[in-house]
Write a structure and sequence with these properties.
The complex is a heterodimer.
Chain A: H1 2-20, E1 23-34, E2 40-43, E3 61-67, E4 72-78, E5 86-87, E6 95-101, E7 108-109, E8 115-121, E9 126-134, E10 151-156
Parallel strand pairs in A: 5-6
Antiparallel strand pairs in A: 2-3, 3-9, 4-8, 4-10, 6-7, 6-9
Chain B: E1 5-11, E2 16-18, E3 22-25, E4 32-37, E5 46-47, E6 55-61, E7 70-71, E8 77-83, E9 88-96, E10 111-119
Parallel strand pairs in B: 5-6
Antiparallel strand pairs in B: 2-9, 3-9, 4-8, 4-10, 6-7, 6-9
The chains are: A mainly beta, B mainly beta.
């Protein structure tokens, strides 16, 4: 009788143990990420060089390009001037030049085609760069003629 | 739990999306209570009551009637009381992405929603 009592006690204990383990989990795995947005913002967005003398070179002007939520390559291009000076690799007759440096990437002379300014800028990162202007060595357009031009930066997948 | 995945994919900031229907089944042999909880994103986004900077929200429509009555947290909340053996409950989920982000695009921000069945406590 005592033995039967012990067995019942053990069985009851096993039952309690079984009930204590009667819990279970299952999951839903939600896969999600942020959509890629490639963008670039340049500050400042103007460069007031003012009247220049023939053959002169400006001081290096600092700029900063800020990237969107995706690591990007930065490319840069320029236009010919409004008053017919031509953007070229080096200053010349009615030709001006603009050099761009975004260290540690190599310096480049702007052209009317895109060139790589910075090979890779991390997501949400910024890259500083400088621009230097070289005025034509001679001119046929005259003083006071607007020789403004536009520089465009483009961000794309590296 | 069927299905056991919800592939939202890449989404914009402040996105709101609803899942299809999920089914919870009491596949055991006893009546159970079921709780639900969420987790933080694997890439650093936090689960919060409302979306914010680097924070998303997940809501549960426990009756699958279009009313999201439970906002998930990382602690267990009641989902179903006294589910009979072999019974089913359907539900839907609603995801709200952060309002701003510092981790970048393409970073997996996967989340696990956990359902736990335990002995019904009358």
């Amino acid at each position: 009788m005592r033995r039967l009592g012990m067995m019942l006690a053990i069985l009851c204990l096993m039952g309690v143990t079984y009930q204590a383990q009667a819990a279970d989990t299952d999951t839903i795995t939600v896969t999600v990420s942020l959509e890629s947005v490639i963008s670039v913002t340049v500050t400042p967005d103007t460069w007031a060089i003012g009247p220049v003398t023939l053959g002169s070179t400006s001081a290096a002007a600092p700029f900063s390009a800020t990237i969107g939520n995706t690591a990007s390559k930065l490319e840069i291009t320029g236009t010919d001037a409004a008053g017919a000076w031509v953007l070229d690799n080096a200053a010349g007759a009615d030709q001006f030049a603009v050099s761009a440096v975004a260290a540690p990437d190599p310096a480049i002379n702007l052209s009317t085609s895109y060139q790589v300014l910075a090979a890779s800028v991390p997501a949400y990162g910024s890259r500083g760069f400088t621009l230097t202007y070289s005025a034509p060595t001679s001119d046929t357009k005259g003083g006071g003629v607007d020789q403004g031009f536009t520089i465009t930066l483009k961000a794309s997948a590296p | 739990m069927t299905p056991d995945t919800w592939a939202i994919g890449p989404r914009a900031l402040s996105y709101v999306g609803e899942s299809g229907t999920f089914t919870v089944t009491n596949a055991g042999n006893i009546v159970v209570d079921v709780t639900v909880k969420g987790g933080h994103g694997t890439g650093g986004w936090l689960l919060q009551n409302t979306p914010g900077p680097n924070a998303f929200a997940l809501e549960v429509d426990g009756l699958d009637d279009g009313s999201y009555e439970t906002v998930l947290t990382t602690t267990e909340q009641p989902f179903a009381d006294a589910m009979p053996v072999s019974s089913n409950r359907t539900l839907g989920l609603r995801y709200r992405s952060p309002t701003s982000d510092t981790y970048g695009a393409g970073v997996a921000q996967d989340v696990t929603v956990t359902f736990k069945a335990s002995l019904d406590a009358p």
